[in-house]
Amino acid sequence: MIQKNYNRQGLAMAHIAIALSAFSDGAVQAAIELPAGAIVVGGSALVTTAFDAETTATLKVGDADDDDRYSGTPLDVSAAGSKPLVPTGYVMPEKGDVIVTYASTGAAATEGELLLVIEYIEANKSEWTQG
Questions:
Q1: How many whole angstroms from its chain centre is CA 117?
Q2: CA-to-CA distance for 43 and 114, rounded, in angstroms?
Q3: What is the C-alpha end-to-end distance of the chain, expressed in Å?
Q4: Which residue in 112, 103, 108 sits closest to 51, CA to CA?
Q5: What is the pTM assigned to this prediction?
Q6: pLDDT at 24
Q7: Closest Cα partner for 124 from 5, 1, 18?
Q8: CB 85 within 8 A of CB 71
C-alpha cells in the first residue's frame, strides 16, 4: 500500500543574467547557489543576444562534480532562443553552486547574453500540508 505524503512545497526559481563579459576571467563560472537537498526539476538558458563566435558557441550547465549535469550536452548559444535544461533527479548533498562553462571555436565572440533560469524543489521540505 502506498503511504501518502501530505507535505507540499512551492517550486523555487532562481535566475541570473549572464553576459559574454562574465567569462573574461575564465570560461567556468559559478552562477547560482542551491541549498542542500535541492533537486533541479526544470530550467532553461534563454539566449537574448546570440554569442557570435565565428564557428561555435556553447554553454554547459552543471555543478562542481559534473559540469554538464543539467544541460546533458553543451547548449548551442550561437542563436537566440530558449535552450531547455535536462533535469536528472540529482539531489544536492550540500549547499553548492550551479556552474556554467562557456566554450567557442573560431574567432572569439564579441557579444552574447542569456538569462539562466533554474527551477528546483528541496528534498524533505514542507511549507504546508494537504489532506
A1: 6
A2: 13
A3: 18
A4: 112
A5: 0.94
A6: 87
A7: 5
A8: yes
